[in-house]
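The following record pairs a protein chain with its ligand, glutamine.
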Amino acid sequence: MKKVSVRRTISIAFMLMVGLFMVNSFAFAQVKPKIAILATGGTIAGVGQSEVGSAYKSGAITVDKLLAAVPQINNIATVQGEQVVQIGSQDMNDMVWLKLAKRINELAKTDVQAFVITHGTDTQEETAYFLNLVLKTDKPVVLVGAMRASTAISADGPKNLYDAVSCAIDPTSKGRGVMIIMNDKILGADDVTKTMTTAVETFACPNYGPLGIMYNGKPMYTRTSMKKHTVKSEFSVDNLSELPRVEIIYGYSNVTPLFVDAAVKAGVKGIVYAGVGNGNPSTTLQDALVSARKSGIAIVRSSRVFSGPTSQFDEVDDEKCEFAASWYKNPQKARVLLMLALTKTDNYKEIQRMFIEY
Ligand SMILES: NC(=O)CC[C@H](N)C(=O)O
């Protein structure tokens, strides 16, 4: 009788342990968040001629190879990789933006919990800002790149990619708008820009400061963006098959209306003027921009100066000229916002409102 009950106790204990193990491993499998990594190319996928030289080809390796270099990611997330394009980001264009945005909006409706986009650094800030304005999700979306090719000594891509995944799967990253992770920093799409051509420490938010830092694989946030983005944005790519054409024209001393005239002739819908100082055009340039405006082209004044606002009511009478001032948007981000603004309106007052809100 005693023997039977001892045996029974042992077998019950054994079954309990097996049960516990199964529940545990099931729970563990459940805990790993599902993440989509959308690859577009860039130096992070770059292959160099040597480990020490700077010459390399960007976008040379695929998403699978990229992920194979960082097996640690499999410990923290279940990854679904997709190769969207395989380009240097100097070749990024509106069509890829629309494709990327539509794909993320579609995946956001599934059980994918977060998104990481690998991207070349040259135009990474523009893609980030575009997505920030058109994605209809509060699931975390993080762009990541590298300054050193994957074959270089001390390649920065693997750590940046691990940080990007860690940031994206963290519950505190929800609803913060699109972010860029580079070199331990978490940078908001509304302000982030590339500040040095070759350095690893190149991305910064010159006006608002970073959103936080990555520390031991965890995001430590110190700031939240006050600008409208993602689910609160009025812009949508749902019915768009192309974007209105907007060109950027650069300001300098002795500038002539040559490029404004060319833009008008080419039939652009908007011009961003990267003016000197507080977005100032020369007298002749201003006349050319006013006549472009009169012909129906939207004009936004921005600045070639690295930081600070291009503010209204300074040396240019924006009301009289029917211009909008870009405030904290640099010319390349101003172009993104103006393209989306033009999908809604060409009223300069409305466009000005958007430049204040986004
Ligand atoms: N560091 C980089 O990613 C630059 C490589 C390339 N020009 C690109 O932007 O894709």
